[in-house]
Write a structure and sequence with these properties.
493 residues, alpha+beta, four-stranded antiparallel sheet, 8 strands, globular
């Protein structure tokens, strides 16, 4: 079977289990999950869906999220969209609008809180930027390596331009996405945010000081674009339609631009500086303890989808210092998860279903994608999720300790973790020392996660329940092959 046929078969197997094309209101994906807006949640066959061999877990939030893993989800989503488009019945625009409004209202009432909505919006602004951050970060690391080795001096300036160009204009992209997320005209958000990086602001004085290009960074761009959206919406309500095309964009850029120059740039600059100073102070004075707490709590944040809210902080640190010292610490959570999964594999030698799940999810786990192991292994079992957090805590404490001793370990970009973070590592000491510290943290996370899970991750009742022979359930799918049985329901810790 070709790769395209395989992806089409996965999409075809999922579609009927989520209620068919008529039940699909929207389709999107992130790095690991297929995100579906459903018209009727009751039509979803959860257990059969979890039993599909390509499905690593499901998560219900503002959308119904099916964990397929990195790479796979990006290839399955277009096939799924094509099937929906080919199968979906024709509706009038009014019918679709009414259905969409009803779904949105019901889901908002059930799942949304102001805090979760705010965090989700922040994630929606920054997540689309991650591919560029990864690509530019790796190029920056390659360029630094060539400079340190004294190789290819004629090439390094070009690599520096490739690596730095996006970061120099990241405020514009943040402004564009912010306006889009908050219901404004994206290009107007980008135009206002562009003021922040324009070199000419160096001729302007505000609050008794001369402004600097880029002052306020992504936080200033976010605030400027939000303000632009509110100004634009006010104009849309009060400006006559005949003048709207001229007056609305002009007032939007003028009003929000003036506030940005003579207010937001200074305020956001102070906040950005405070974030950087606090991160440095925290790791310099309480590195081991801070790393322990951050590494231990990160898996629950991933489970809830709240880890994306940290992206603006990472981005601010990268803008200021060239790397974020928080990401290598948080990446230790994935190491604890891997160690825990290996322990589960050894503790349940008779459970072929769980062991197959672990074998298929471990490669992604080593590369820092923890969701397959979270939703496919540790969280359904209960205790192993807690012991995985313990492994992450000790790994984070290890890296934090070296930060406290003066060896900063950072990442030049965000997105990857685990082994995939090695090309992005940077710090205030030599690259070899930085890599050694990070690798040592991973090893600590693996070992502690394994030991904690092997000795304390299972009660006697849990072992009796799950260390039993399992046979694959023959559930037909579009490709005609059998699938593994679903994971058990979550067990109380």
């Amino acid at each position: 079977m070709s790769t395209d046929d395989k992806n089409r078969a996965i999409a075809a197997a999922i579609l009927p289990l989520v209620g068919g094309a008529e039940n699909i209101g929207s389709v999107a994906h992130c790095m690991t999950r297929l995100r579906l807006g459903l018209r009727d949640r009751s039509l979803v066959q959860d257990e059969a869906l979890k039993a599909l061999p390509s499905v690593m877990g499901v998560v219900e939030d503002d959308t119904y999220q099916i964990v397929l893993g990195p790479g796979t989800v990006a290839r399955v989503t277009p096939e799924f969209e094509a099937l929906v488009a080919a199968s979906a019945p024709t509706h009038t625009a009014d019918e679709l609008a009414a259905q969409g409004a009803a779904i949105k209202a019901a889901r908002k009432a059930k799942n949304q809180t102001p805090f979760k909505l705010f965090l989700r919006r922040i994630a929606n602004i920054f997540v689309p930027l991650i591919p560029a951050l990864i690509g530019c970060g790796i190029i920056a690391g390659l360029n630094g390596l060539l400079i340190n080795l004294g190789r290819l001096p004629s090439v390094t300036p070009a690599l520096a331009a490739m690596a730095s160009g996006f970061m120099a204009l990241i405020a514009v992209f943040v402004g564009f996405n912010t306006a889009k997320e908050f219901g404004g005209t994206p290009i107007l958000g980008g135009a206002v945010a562009a003021i922040i990086v324009f070199p000419g602001v160096a001729k302007i004085d505000a609050f008794g000081q001369t402004l600097s290009p880029g002052q306020g960074g992504v936080l200033g761009a976010l605030g400027a674009a939000v303000l632009a959206v509110y100004v634009e919406k006010w104009c849309r309500r009060w400006v006559p339609e005949a003048l709207d095309v001229l007056v609305t964009p002009t007032l939007t850029v003028l009003v929000s631009g003036l506030v940005t120059i003579f207010g937001l740039m200074f305020v956001a600059g102070e906040v950005s500086t405070a974030i950087g100073d606090f991160a440095n102070w925290l790791l310099a004075n309480a590195g081991a303890g801070a790393g322990f707490v951050l590494g231990g709590l990160f898996l629950p944040l991933v489970m809830l989808g709240l880890h994306q809210a940290l992206i603006p902080i990472h981005t601010t640190l990268i803008e200021q210092q060239g790397f974020t010292v928080l990401l290598p610490i948080l990446a230790m959570a994935g190491a604890g998860q891997v160690g825990a999964a290996v322990a589960v594999y050894l503790k349940l030698p008779r459970n072929g279903s769980i062991r197959r799940t672990i074998k298929s999810a471990l490669p992604a786990g080593f590369l820092g994608v923890g969701e397959p192991l979270i939703y496919g292994v540790s969280l359904p079992l209960g205790r192993p999720f807690v012991t995985a957090c313990v492994g992450g805590a000790f790994g984070g404490g290890f890296v934090g300790l070296f930060n406290m001793l003066g060896d900063k370990v950072g990442s030049t970009a965000i997105g990857p973790s685990g082994w995939a973070l090695f090309p992005l590592l940077d710090g205030n000491k030599g690259l070899g020392e930085t890599i050694a510290i990070y690798a040592g943290g991973l090893l600590v996370g693996y070992v502690v996660g394994f030991v904690a899970t092997y000795f304390w991750g299972f009660s006697r009742e849990l072992l009796e329940e799950f260390n039993v022979e399992t046979e694959p359930a023959e559930v037909p799918v579009a490709s005609g092959g059998p699938v593994a049985p679903q994971m058990p329901e979550p067990v109380k810790v």
